[in-house]
Amino acid sequence: MDRENQTRVTEFLLLGFSGEPEQEKILFGMFMWMYLVTITGNFLITLAITCDSHLHKPMYFFLANLSCVDICFSSVTTPKMLVNHMLGNESISYVECMIQIYFFITFINMDGFLLSVMAYDRYVAICSPLHYSMIMRPKLCVLLVAVSWIITNMHALLHTLLMVQLMFCSNNAVHHFFCDPYAILKLSCSDTFINELMISTAGGLMSITPFTCITVSYAYIFSNVLKFPSIQAIRKALSTCGSHLTVVSLFYGAILGVYMHPSSSYSVQDTVATVIFTVVTPLVNPFIYSLRNYDMKGSLRKLIIRRLVSPRIRKF
Fold it and tell me: What is the reported pTM?
């Protein structure tokens, strides 16, 4: 009876980072720049891998998928914030918020799964180089990515369906720039025990499983690499892992800082860490993987030159 008498929230207010107009303008410019660079950088990575036959290898197949996921991940949160700022509007409808939560959970977990698959790829390449082409067959690569998509979508659907069962009453102010699941849970006037339980169990499993795969893969990699006869051989083997380890550290460091505590203790300070894996990590991924990879740099250079030279040739 009480449930029927309560007024359902039809929209949420995304309060962002600051109430100061000048600071909001600066943040808008920063986020606009970061979003455009993220889309451009990741699109170029995907295009270079697709167009260059020399990059049609498992490692680059996974990297292309990671770039696509990063484009989608950034597009789930940032455009809505930019549009709201331009329109002078802070609202997001209830339905839009639930959709945003679904895709946010999907893509954040997909990032983790792809990073774990890439760690396994590096393990096979370094520890079993003679069997690499036999183990990392195209069918297995496609299967690993497809299974990751299925698992992450099912997991996101579970949390979203649990979220829509909650009641939201008078308080609809979200102290964030998007519908973060933890921030939304704090606003519910219903019992969130089941949601908290599923975040701790299913959510924890979805985070721990890929992280464990990454840790185990690198434990085997380091134990094998240390047996190499020369420092040069060790350096060469580890150079292929440097970019991946940098991204993993940045991504999981921010996630552990935000989501490894109850939603009731979620604070405004956690927003900064959230920005790192929702905005900064997709932004820096293309630079990390391209600047430290000779093949990627060569492919990107050829792609850019081809795009610049081709129009001029057609004019003649």
Answer: 0.88
